[in-house]
Write a structure and sequence with these properties.
Elements (H helix, E strand, L loop, with lengths): L9 H11 L5 H8 L3 H13 L3 E6 L2 E6 L15 H9 L14
Antiparallel strand pairs: 1-2
Helix pairs in contact: 1-3, 2-3
Length: 104
């Protein structure tokens, strides 16, 4: 019997959901990934708290913006930015200028 596994952590998978749809709802993230809404909420808060995602209110919903210029936290991939890795996983995305964080 083989177990299901993934190359990406749930944090990475949530980041991909946000990259595909910056206005995605937590319930949609949870449904797509097979996790609870509470888990999705915790992961999004981890990403926001770590500075990797910026969250803005848009009416009753949230919109997310990935801070693509930031390096990944892993030592093996530290030379790559989040945006570079997302481009590989999501497909061609319009590149943002490096080293220019979003103004708050």
């Amino acid at each position: 019997m083989s177990r299901e596994w993934s190359f990406l952590t749930n944090h990475g998978r949530v980041l991909l959901c946000i990259a595909r749809d910056p206005g995605i709802r937590l319930r949609d993230i949870a449904a797509e990934l097979g996790i609870t809404e509470r888990t999705a909420y915790g992961i999004v808060n981890d990403l926001v708290g770590g500075g990797y995602v910026h969250k803005d209110k848009d009416g009753r919903r949230n919109r997310y913006e990935i801070q693509e210029h930031l390096p990944l936290g892993e030592t093996v991939t530290r030379e790559r930015s989040i945006g570079e890795v997302l481009n590989l996983l999501v497909g061609a995305r319009k590149p943002r200028p490096r080293g220019r964080p979003r103004p708050r």
